Amino acid sequence: MDDKVLWWILGMAALATAAGAAWMLLRVLRARRALREAGVPLRDKALFWGAVLYTVSPVDVLPDPVYLDDIGVLMLALRALQTAARGAARHKPG
Q: Pfam family of this protein, just one (predicted)?
């Protein structure tokens, strides 16, 4: 395989994972906006901010061209926010 092809494939993979991380970050921000007034516990709010900080932080478990760890952290934050929203909706009067 030619070196140009290999670098092109690696670049496209890095671009795809970066796009996935950006998409997940956008979803987390939208979910947070929707849950702002929903009575979400402090633990879930802290998890949200931790996920955002980890995503934009230069310190990662995996090197920056591989965004799988960032995507995983954002997915956990989304799941926690979704669970908190369901719990808040069940306990909300009316």
A: DUF1232
Query: How big is the chain, counted in residues?
Result: 94
Q: Which domain holds residue 45?
A: 3-91
Token pair recorded at residue 76 = 């956990």
Task: Quote the distance between the C-alpha of residue 81 and its chain's center.
Answer: 11
Residues 6+ apart with CB under 8 A from 77: 28, 47, 48, 50, 51, 52
**Integer CA distances (angstroms), 76 to 44, 51, 71, 73, in order:** 10, 8, 9, 5
pTM: 0.55
Residue 93: burial class (beta carbons within 10 Å; 0-12, 13-18, 19+)? exposed
Contacts of 92 (CB under 8 A, 6+ apart): 38, 39
Percent of the chain scored above 70 by pLDDT? 79
Within the chain, which residues score under 50 in pLDDT?
none
